[in-house]
Amino acid sequence: MAGFKKLIFIQIISWLLCVAAGSYFISISFDSAVSDAQKNAQTTVTKYINGLTLDEISAQNVKQSIADGKTFSSFTLRDYQGAEIFSINSPTRLPMFAEFVQSSFNSVRPQFAVNDAADIKVEFTLNIQHLAEQLQISLFIVIAISAILVIIPIILMQSIFYQLNKNISTTVSDIIDIYINQNQVDENLDTALDSSRLKTLGKDLVPSFNRLSHFLKTKGEDIQSAAMTIKHEAYKDVITALGNRNMFVEYYEKNIENTEQSTFGSLAMIRCSELQAINQSRGYQKGDEYVKGVADIIKHISGTYTGSQVFRLNSSDFAVVLPHTPLKEAERFGENLQSRFTQYQQNQELSSVANTGIVGYEKGKPLGELLSVVDNAMSMAQSKQVNAWHVQRETDLVNNISAGFGNQNWRKVINEVIESKRVHLVMQNIMPLGKSIKAYAEVQVRFKTEDNQVLPTASFLAMAEKLDMAIEIDRLIIDSSLEKVKSRNLSEKFFGLNVTASSAHNDQFVIWLERRLLKDTHIASKLVFEVSEFGLQQNIKASKRFIDMVHRVGARVTVERFGVGLTSFKFFRDLKPDFIKMDASYTRGLEDDKNNQYFMRLMVDLAHRIGVSVFAEGVESQEEKHIIETLCLDGVQGYYIEKPKDI
To answer: Signal sequence span per UniProt (predicted)?
Structure first.
């Protein structure tokens, strides 16, 4: 199309040049014809008056002969003294182009004639109307003919271009169809386009399509490589660089559930039992280091098994696939993990590290069913001891129902803890950031088995909540804490006790707690009950009744993990807590996060206006503590300030 437009432009320029050249030559011819006519007219007039005298010329006859104005546009007769005898003027308007040529060349000029006796003088201007009309007609003919000569090729070229483009499009379309069909059959983008039909359609295009094939193959490889890189990044866990849950699902479906070959092996799930506690007490950075440490242990132990695969399913769970490994051999894997976890626990001063559930798998086993069984094995392991493992066999499953085993075992363990009051209390102080600030020490609980093994706290509390036993646990913690305060004569110190939302919203628990605190009013005034922001939001009316009761007995209330939900300050004005404790996620990297700094400062200003003190938890560096001090918070808590210690 661009070539066609260029051709049209050339044709138009050629036409204009032709018109210009024709006009020039016609103008020259017109000027020459006018000059010849004027010369002939002068010769004729001169011959006519040469043998005559003034007396012999009849002025009336001359007037009649030239009055029509066809010969002369002006005529003046003078005597020997130059006096005008008569004059005739009959000017005519020339056509536009003739007028332009005449004025440009000055073709029409006055002519003069004198007789031999010199008594007759004639001045005249020739009428060139007929020559001008001929000039105009010639010009129109030139323009018309040249225009026709230009337009006809353009029309022909347009038709030729259209037909040519149609033929080319049809040829390329046919070649592309053959190209695609060949590559669909051969599944090879580098297929040579050298068939006889392709050569017939357009052999000149064959090399281009071979280059296109190579280009597409190269680009296809690049795209596949980029897609694999993107997929790998999307399927990779950022902290451990292991495959995430999506990669695990894809691996299982491809290599186990839907594989054509017979396969079997063992699947282990490892759960980091202390991640939540570390995040809250030491900060998220320490939590990430803890997860990396567990991942390194898992990769090291599983690396001795051929074809093993390790994935991080979520924040606290890892999955390990041990192909062609029977459960008997997988037991040794569990023992090795427990040994390394125990060593890591001692080095890092942790209450526990992780528990392991192990099950067997075979070809065609649905992933959802397998995960249900391994989760049950995990529950069994958590209820045993620190860093314990448990293998769940098919023979252990009664009527193929596995979910109840872990729950039943946990219920038994929790009941034993409650009946035997096997709780160990530690405390972690909140450091006040002002002389007039009232702070306290948060009481934290560790639960033990009958073998005096520490159970994973987060798992224990989660299972207690799941089995509707949280109220009994809260009663146990409160009773044990009050007895400890009384026995150690610590009634002058302030202590914080955690209460689950389900207990705070339970009327019977609230009645029990009020009566229990009234028995020791001097201790009750030193207690601060911590309830999560999210839990309080679940039932505003019940939360208000609980807080009002706590205030009646002289105790105080802290809203912990503040900032995770979307609570408005109208909510706080209605409930009237005494303290709020910012979630540890706001402390993490606070020195570099201007948004968190702004949010915390805003919360502090608003809280202080309604008389609420603000604490920060999870403080793990001097920089974080310094920033918190500049934001005017009232207190800080974390491993940098103080580690949990026995009461």
So the answer is: none
425: which strand partners? 445
Residue 274's alpha-carbon distances to 57, 446, 556, in angstroms, are 143, 12, 28
Phi–psi pair at 109, nearest 5 degrees: -130, 150
**Average pLDDT of the residues in 341-358:** 89
Residues 531 and 386 in one domain: no
Between CA 300 and CA 340 the distance in angstroms is 10
Q: What is the DSSP letter of 584?
A: G
Which residues on adjacent β-strands are paired with residue 496?
Answer: 442, 528
396-416: pLDDT as tens digits: 544 433 344 467 778 888 999
Condensed to tens digits (0 to 9), the pLDDT of residues 273-302 reads 888 888 877 778 888 999 999 999 999 999
User: Is 353 inside a domain boundary?
Assistant: yes
Verify that 354 and 213 share a domain, yes or no.
no
Q: State the pTM of this model.
A: 0.53
Q: What is the residue range of 524's domain?
A: 417-646
Number of domains in the chain: 4
Task: Indicate the residue among 208, 234, 260 that finishes a domain.
Answer: 234
What distance in Å separates the CA atoms of residue 275 and residue 354, rounded to the nearest whole number? 9
Contact 302, 333 (CB under 8 A): yes
3-state secondary structure of 317: strand
- CA atoms of 463 and 267, how far apart (whole Å): 23
Beta bridge partners of 271: 317, 355
Q: Return the structure tokens found at 569.
A: 């300050």
Residue 299 and residue 319: Cα distance in Å, rounded?
11
* Residue 548 pLDDT grade (very low, low, confident, very high; cuts 50, 70, 90): very high
pLDDT average, residue stretch 167-191: 61
